[in-house]
Amino acid sequence: MRRATALFAALAALALAAGCSLGGSSEEAYVVEDCTRADFGGHSVARIWDEALLASIRRDTPAPTVHARNLFHVSAAMWDAWAAYDPRAAGLFVTEKHAADDIQAAREAALSYAAYRVLLHRYSYASGLEQTFEQLAGTMESLCYRLDYTETEGDSPAALGNRIAATVIARAADDGANEALRYAAPGYRPVNPPLVVDEPGAAMRDPSRWQPLALAKIVAQNGLPVPGRVQAFVGPQWGEVRGFALPPARDGMPIDPGPAPRLDDGRTSDEFKRTALEIVRYSSQLDPSDGVRMEIGPAGRGGNALGTNDGEGHELNPATGRPYEPNVVARGDFARALAEYWADGPDSETPPGHWNTIANEVSDRPELEHRIGGTGPVVDRLEWDVKLYLALNGAVHDAAVAAWGAKAYYDSARPISMIRYLGSKGQSSDPDGPSYHPDGLPLERGLVEVVTRASSRSGERHAALAGHVGEIAIRAWAGFPDDPVAEASGVRWIRAVEWVPYQLPTFVTPAFAGYVSGHSTFSRAAAEVMTAFTGSSYFPGGIHELPVPAGWLKIERGPSTDFTFQWATYFDAADDAGRSRLYMGIHISPDDFAGRRLGSQCGKDAWELARRYYEGAV
Q1: Which H or E run includes 237?
Q2: Percentage helix, strand, coil, to 5, in the chain?
Q3: Helix pair 129-142, 45-59: axis angle to 10 deg
């Protein structure tokens, strides 16, 4: 019965988008009689819908651009419903003003119908749609609202919510996302032929440009199969999508971060090779048995200047006035866990949604006073949440548009292509040495070396590569183990042309260009909003902690012991999100640093525009 009801509601939502109206017009017609609301544990109705949206994202195929857009549009719909009952606040899509005897109840009803209808529309073709429809219908029922109330005319809160949803759906239909064709972008063609991951090397027409991967089987990070065996660039049109606080796009980009390094550019060719070498170094640090231990807490990490990793940590916790406690763990455990945590793997809400979960956890912290911007009166949770979601999800939506605009315009290579291509050419450090080529990998003793007869003799460091004298060997993560539950591959000497990122063999690297890093852009944008919205760059209590139990990893066995991630500030967490992609081997540092800078601008601009909507000054 629930399934049939949800499907009917979905059809009604589509009818609304076309301007149709079904149902009665009574002020109370949308309320289920003799119904008792569920206990939401003190959470606001806006929070309930945000959680429902995050659950819908987790069931669907990971697509950070699409889900960032959905987060923003649902948040904007909820904001418009709240703002309609505030004499000063300005709506985004609908600017109506209404009065009500019970403003809180009216807001909750309008907000719920708006969120419900937009979500039904957006996830009507998504993976897991049956479970999503059932959850959305169940949420409405738990709030004692009728599913079949689809009236759009009149002053009832439900009709207002339905109008808001219809307006959001209609206005977004031509925003550049190509929603009608399921976000397809048929005009993009990669310049490079596919890289067959199971075969050594990387044949490239342009080694600085993106190369799709050919895999025996492609599976999304949350376990959903992806049709085909060759990657298709996801979202190359996204730079033209209408944002929140972004300027209009030029050349497909609303903000130009400047060019990525290129191998054929004399000014940046050394940087191109150096950053590939840097990723080999990160890969060499994924072995928890190497004996290296590191401080991973605020006492020794964090406090970076924007676009750098120059920080040396924080001297004191501002909430306690005391130094942060040491937190020393095996480097290989930390590096692998950091990569997997921020990768948003199984049950992923993707990076934009991940920052919603962080924001929700912060909002629940007892140390936090709910003062917008850290000043003024304490507000109720509904006002706090709708204002937070508007700013936060406006920022991550803009981050998606800005980052993917740069990805499509600069179309830059991923590390798997860079390292394999450079390694196939030889070494570029010693013109008088063996296997020299100006486009080869730089040499570094103990990390990148040429295999020689002497080095490959029995008992020597390259003994396993005895049949590959003259080739380039790198000391790096050895690849996906046969039994990831029981085995960890560790680090050893391998052929550069066979290197793979720290990833599952059915995924390997995301299906779009590297520059700039989406994780870095999303995370810095969110960190800017969280800092401005709460009035402090520090997490409540001066620290945010996440336990990592032994054996938690999915790619291989580990970590070897329990430990805890710790971040003092939102910026520290955001920087680790970007850096995690270097440990994973799917970005280079220019991708990361440029993404952080781009995200900073998106976050600051979104916050300033959101404040204007709060104040009715748009």
Answers
A1: none
A2: 45, 10, 50
A3: 170
In terms of Cβ atoms closer than 10 Å to its own Cβ (0-12, 13-18, 19+), residue 398 is buried
Cis peptide before 516 (omega within 30 of 0): yes
- Supply 340's token pair: 């997997």
Nearest CA to 568 among 193, 267, 316, 201?
Answer: 316
Compute the distance between CA of residue 263 and CA of residue 270 in angstroms, rounded to an integer. Answer: 8
- Report yes or no: 396 and 403 within 8 Å, Cβ to Cβ: no
Residue 365 has pLDDT above 60, yes or no: yes
Q: What is the mean pLDDT of residues 28-50?
A: 95
Residue 328: phi and psi, rounded to 5, are -105, 125
Strand partners, 427: 436, 441
Backbone phi and psi for residue 77, each to the nearest 5 degrees, phi listed first: -65, -45
Token pair, residue 290, equals: 């190497």
| pLDDT confidence band for 300 (50 / 70 / 90) | very high
- Placement of tokens 């520290």 in the chain: 572
How much is the pLDDT for 345?
56
| Average of per-residue pLDDT across 14-37 | 63
Dig out the tokens for 480 from the structure: 């996906």
Q: Which element (helix H / strand E) includes 223?
A: none
- The Cβ of residue 198 has, within 10 Å, a number of other Cβ atoms equal to 10
Question: Average pLDDT, whole number, for the chain?
Answer: 94
